[in-house]
Amino acid sequence: LNPAAQSGLLCVLLVVVVGLVVVFPVILTMRIDGGLAWPWPAVFTPLWLVDLLVLALAAASPRDRDAGCWRCVPNRRQVNLALLLAFQLLLAYKLDAGEQAPFSYSESFLPLEISIFLGAVAELCMHGRTALGRGRGGGQGAEGADRAAAQRRLVSVVARSSLQLSFLGLLGCRVDDLLPVTWWTVLTPLWLLLLLYCLRAAASCASIKAAAQEEERVARRVLAGLSSAASLICFFCLLLLSLRLAEGVPLSAALILTPFLTVVGLLLCCTCTSCICAGVLVSADADGAADGLAAGDAYQRHCDEESAQSDPSAASA
Questions:
Q1: How far apart are CA 104 and CA 10, in angstroms?
Q2: Which of 136-168 are b and which e, b meaning 16 or more Cβ less than 10 Å from the residue's Cβ?
Q3: Terminal CA-to-CA distance of the chain, rounded, Å?
Q4: Within its chain, how far is the Cα of 276 from the centroid?
Q5: How far apart are CA 301 and CA 173, in angstroms?
Q6: Which of 99, 197, 238, 288 has the fewest Cβ atoms within 10 Å of its own Cβ atom?
């Protein structure tokens, strides 16, 4: 395929993925609020289509050479996506079958927990060598800065993975009635995860002045702004969810997910606009390159004709 066709295909796939990501929470909220009577597998179908598409793209992507102990695995992205798809299948079947399912909610969470654990191990392997293996003599300069950054990354990975696994464990105990835990206890790891994310956003804001070039400072400002907006949206969604589950406030699922759906809708509009602009630019570049090649060939023929006219012996030869 030529560059214009490749760009068009990529834009179409991106719009399809974002569109399915928008459709899934809409259908989910309607199903929770009683607006739809669809079976749960039908509700999860848009999400499964996205998973299959991403899984196919991951299968076609080159092998990740920086995965440390994951090098024995053909493609670690495929493993994570397969575990995520297995979790979604088990959860949809459990929601649809209810008590008749041969497994509990805690057991349906196992593929997701395994994916989180293996992802944490992979990140620890990638950053552990830098954090622990280098600079044993008290690394100075750039080496010491890399080691400190890797150590902070290790702490963040351990904290994030521990909180995620804690939330899944508490959620399984709550919905399966294994332990008498309250919803505030179940949601505590999510609040701590949000706090961790806010701290990272604050660190991004604090690092703006440390950038040496203006382009890097602009990029960090944009990243800090996006992180702050995402933190605010997650705060409102989690607050509304906590009020509904822990305090019994009659809030609909649509109201709880309204901030998220608004942002995703804007993202879909921006994605479509960006894809259209990218397609136009790629087509213009391809046309310009073709025109340039044609002009170059015409100039070369003109030079050959002038050379032949000025040198009859060369022309006869």
A1: 40
A2: eeeeeeeeeebbeebeebbeebeebbebbbbbb
A3: 42
A4: 22
A5: 80
A6: 99
pLDDT digits over 191-204, tens only?
999 998 888 877 77
Mean pLDDT is lowest, of 61-75, 161-175, 229-243, for 61-75
Question: Among 119, 96, 118, 120, which residue's Cα sits nearest to residue 108?
Answer: 96
Contact indicator for 172, 106 with CB cutoff of 8 Å? yes
pLDDT at 181 (0 to 100)? 87
Give me the half-sphere count of Cα atoms (radius 13 Å) on the Cβ side of residue 12: 6
Residue appearing with tokens 């809030």? 251
Reported confidence tier of residue 152, pLDDT bands at 50, 70, 90: confident
Six-digit token pair at 162?
């521990």
* Amino acid symbol at 183: W
Tokens of 124: 């620890």
Q: Which two tokens stand for residue 202?
A: 């604050």
Of the pLDDT bands very low, low, confident and very high (cuts 50, 70, 90), residue 184 is very high
